[in-house]
């Protein structure tokens, strides 16, 4: 760890803009956060439904190979040969029961064991293939959602999730039995923290679709789970009423079962955002590329029990509603870029909506508050070792 | 190549260019006007990666004429004034075509799209890929897009999309 200096205001609702743009801070974030004691969702089991299925992913640069072995067990490996460290698998996804490194033809099975390597009699005396499996990070699974942590010190996953467990489980359709519909992948020209700093205040203001479709919510709650400031939104599903500017109203129809808590968002520190809105189930796997770029893989899902009509409905709703080109989300993408440009100015970003006392942190918020982001900012500040000014 | 094929190829090229012209001019009504006035008219924009793995999910999924009309509303009305605008230049190249039936043709073409955000003025590639089209031939020989799938080699977009590709 390196001691990085950043003057942090005494008020909880002020975030110094330097934190978003300084290269030295980013380098330290990679060490303390992305390679530190945090759990990072990297895939859902339903992306690998069959034995031999795999997906590759890079978590803040670290290459991962996430696979289901021939016996159906999910495993996570570093995507690097145990010999010289060559990237083992280059495909984004696929199905293989063996992985061969082309460099020196070392061969691994789907359990990560080294099963072949040419000319072993010329290796060091005592060489044993059993000593050279693919290395693995720690991983754990919550209703199919696969988490990885690079640190040996991170607490157990369930403790990490804390009070977000219930909301996350419900968002994963209650049982985690999802079926992958596909991906939308995009890079945003913004710091990863701006990407995750979206708030409840902006929704009815930025997104004109809500107004034009007379589609107003605002009745729900958000709350903070654990000292990390994971944020859960739960709200009754509101549906558009009145005359629609859309000719095809089925795009914003709700065909699911229970609208009582029909809309959920779970945002886990540091970068994971997941949402269930209308009939869209969306897990956003996000990773920083550098201080000014974040890459987001929006993965969309149906439920395994859906009939054909429901799958088709989810497919068109998922494609058109909440992604980087979506009816009620494209503007978010643009704001990510603009806020990053604005963050190259002096001073602090100020939070107002829902703040009652700038010297106190709360944990329960209204749906359209922006103060729900403040507990995670306090956690970020503490992990980074930035000293808060005296009150 | 027969004379009929040459004139058909020229007409298909004209349709390709008309679509590029409408998109680069941000003329969404013109864009819509290149599509057949049939309920089945459709536009999809998705990554080749999704297609190769059997996923129909896309960046845009307009599977009927009214969805195409709503796409015009998204751009012209709902999103107006909320994004950093950018210019595009579409470069298209017909690679093959064939006749499917008396009134329908299949057409493939390559595309590359440059974008230049107005605020930065820096030009970069937005996407490359191919169009997989069905083209409707009217009674008088006029051609309209019945279905277009913009299949992107670019599986990770460098930016959000406002306009169709």
UniProtKB/TrEMBL annotation, chain A:
Provide this UniProt record's keywords sorted from A to Z: 2Fe-2S, Dioxygenase, Iron, Iron-sulfur, Metal-binding, NAD, Oxidoreductase
What PROSITE patterns is this protein classified in? RIESKE (PS51296), RING_HYDROXYL_ALPHA (PS00570)
Where the record annotates domain Rieske, the positions are 39-148
Kindly list the GO molecular function terms attached to this UniProt entry.
2 iron, 2 sulfur cluster binding; dioxygenase activity; iron ion binding
Against InterPro entries, the record matches this protein to: ARHD_Rieske_2Fe_2S, Rieske_2Fe-2S, Rieske_2Fe-2S_sf, Ring_hydroxy_dOase_asu_C_dom, Rng_hydr_dOase-A
- The answer to whether the entry has keyword Zinc-finger is no
- Entry's family note: Belongs to the bacterial ring-hydroxylating dioxygenase alpha subunit family.
Q: What is this protein called?
A: (2Fe-2S)-binding protein
**Species of origin:** Sphingopyxis bauzanensis
